[in-house]
Amino acid sequence: MNTPPIQPVSQTRSFTTVFLIEMWERFGYYGMQALIVYFMVQRLGFSDRRATLVWGAAAALIYVAPAIGGWVGDKFLGTRRTMILGAIILAFGYAMMAVPGENVWFLFVSLGIIVVGNGLFKPNAGNLVRKIYEGDDSKIDSAFTIYYMAVNMGSMVSMILTPWIKDYVNLHYGHELGWHAAFAVSSVGLMVGLSNYMVMRHTLKHIGSEPDEQPLDLRKLAIVLLFGVIGVFVSAYILQYETVARIFVYTAGIAVLGIFFYLISNSKKSERAGLIAALVLTVQTVFFFIFYQQMSTSLNLFALRNVNPSFNIFGIHLWDWAPAQFQSFNPIWIFILSPILAVIYNTAGRHSKDLSIAAKFALGFAAVAGGFFIYSAAGHFAVNGRASAWVMVWGYGSSSLGELLVSGLGLAMIARYVPGRMGGFMMGAYFVASGCAQYLGGLVAGFASVPDKIKYIVANTSNPIIDQVRTQYPNIMSLNLDNFRSWIQGVKGTVRSTAGTQLPPFASLPQHSQQLLQQFNQQMYDITMPIYTNLFFWLGVAGIACTLIALAVLPLMKKLSAEHFVHNIATENPLPTIGTEE
After folding, report:
1. Which of 122, 245, 281, 313 could form a disulfide with 66 if both were Cys (CB 3.0 to 4.6 A apart)?
2. Predicted structure pTM score
3. Are 94 and 190 in contact (CB under 8 A)?
């Protein structure tokens, strides 16, 4: 009896399996990111500065960890196995965040688990895509374009969904439960992705690294898990102590610079031009990520405290947007702008008028600067201390264009200028540098920190309404501003002052008291608005400075690129195909 031949699995089906699990992983990550700073400020009582620094340090660790996870997948455990192990660990980390409570160390351990899970998952999912299309350069660029869309599809849906779930559950079931219900959704996203993988795993049986072809070595798995546990507690310790986090980030940054200088000094003379070009562009990327980190920190808090959630056109109300949902405009704009840029790149390439990566970086910084100037101008057009929701739409549009021009081309830059034998190592260094920038972005966001208690916000402000509240309702002065507003809005849950006094439901107060406190709340909008717009203005100025620097180094970059190109021709080693630079 003849056995029918096994039908080969198409590249598309294999790619779809990785695409879907990546989409659900990003769904979980960005659903958590949308709320994590709010959770630390509103639920755990962190100051703005501490919350933005903790998240900056967590983001740095999340970017650094893949440099190790990629090696584990390639050389130790197997690319497929490591990706799935990372997804399981991530699901567990989000599930821990879904446990109700206010224990800060528990939060840091949960974030440490997410750091380890992301480090194992992220690089290996991308490596599987490379392996699926290995040797087929005509498809690899389009595959990674679609793969990038998976990231934005997952983040867009979750950034809209999790804030809505948080607000709905808080309003109807209590202030504590909404946060954890939203984090639970992030965990469920990973579980859906894992379930989908189990159904389609046969499409990846022939894809992976050498360890994937061998039986699972339980000893190696135990070693990875042991070091993973150590990594969790080391990460939690770093997040707990600001000084330790700062030392870690600065050490990592110095190490990346040292790696670059070592490789440049010890490389072949013909390779140095490309490595120097990669170093210049990596430094520019670091500055970009400082701007990028504002989306989840200062811009996120600005949306919470000084942006009107209502979308109106010509006086007609369309819909309301939860503050955390404004972050979803980033992936929405990525969806809109990506195909437009692809057409522009391809058209310019056919006419030999395409810009260099260095020139695109300069344009990207100009777009980022434009976005921050839009935010900074919001104060001039604010109504009752609150900016129009449309300010966030157009600001995110400009910033997202900058992201596509800088971050979107970062890995293409490494592929173009770094010798193939150093490619994987240098991509790891690129991610470490980006992680350092995320922490620096948290430091920058701290310049727009609103004091953690109302009494400190109004300390140097005197007017009849504020003075009246100071006298008649001294307990209000010890509240966090965001919790005060939740109390006014009638969110269920006990609101206590620092002194421990329980406040009655806002609706139970006499009408004149409600009116006074509503007017007092209005004063808070006017006081906090310039705290944010001043930072955004100076970030816009910094964006212009980065643009000018990027333009100033264009002649150097042109010279380095020409030398690198000549070397590639001389060695009959043509440049790798990059879809955006045809």
Report:
1. 122
2. 0.85
3. yes
User: Per residue in 465-490, pLDDT tens?
Assistant: 888 888 888 888 888 888 888 888 87
Other CB atoms within 10 Å distance of the CB of residue 296: 27
Enumerate the CATH 1.20.1250.20 domain ranges in the chain, comma separated: 12-240, 242-450+527-582
pLDDT in tens, 377-402: 988 888 888 999 999 999 999 999 98
Q: Helical H runs in 241-319?
A: 242-266, 269-292, 298-306
Compute the distance between CA of residue 549 and CA of residue 288 in angstroms, rounded to an integer.
Answer: 13
CA distances in angstroms from 401 to 66, 387, 412, 431, 496, listed in the order given: 26, 22, 17, 21, 44
Instruction: Tell me if the domain spanning 12-240 has CATH number 1.10.357.10.
Output: no
Q: What is the DSSP string of 332-376?
A: HHHHHHHHHHHHHHHHHHHTT-PPPHHHHHHHHHHHHHHHHHHHH
Q: Which residues contact 135 (CB under 8 A, 6 or more apart)?
A: none
Residues 6+ apart with CB under 8 A from 544: 365, 366, 369
Tell me how far apart the alpha carbons of residues 387 and 384 are, in angstroms, rounded to a whole number. Answer: 9
CATH superfamily of 242-450+527-582: MFS general substrate transporter like domains (1.20.1250.20)
